[in-house]
Design goal:
Radius of gyration: 15 Å
Structural class: alpha/beta
Low-confidence stretches: none
Distance between the termini: 47 Å
Number of strands: 3
Strand order of the largest sheet: 1-2-3
Largest sheet: 3 strands, parallel
Number of helices: 3
Mean pLDDT: 89
């Protein structure tokens, strides 16, 4: 019911809701790490939240390429078995 209460207490936030612009600057504490795994438009208001973070992944180009590499790595390992 009170998402901002929990996100302000977090040191790391991983958002994968697919709900565009869900996380705003007033919902995070200074120095937080934000990993946005949301849709192609992102769950986080990047430009607003970024100044408060110690690290943030952009959308697009953030976690997506890492996901693709991990999937391909798992595929290669399975095929090699």
């Amino acid at each position: 019911n009170n998402l901002a209460k929990y996100t302000r207490e977090a040191e790391v936030i991983v958002s994968a809701t697919g709900r565009t612009n869900l996380l705003s600057a007033d919902m995070v504490s200074d120095g937080v790490v934000v990993i946005d795994v949301g849709s192609t438009r992102g769950d986080v208001l990047f430009d607003e939240v970024m100044p408060k973070t110690s690290f943030i992944t952009p959308v697009p180009g953030g976690i997506g390429p890492v996901t693709v590499v991990s999937l391909l790595e798992n595929l290669v390992e399975r095929v090699g078995e």
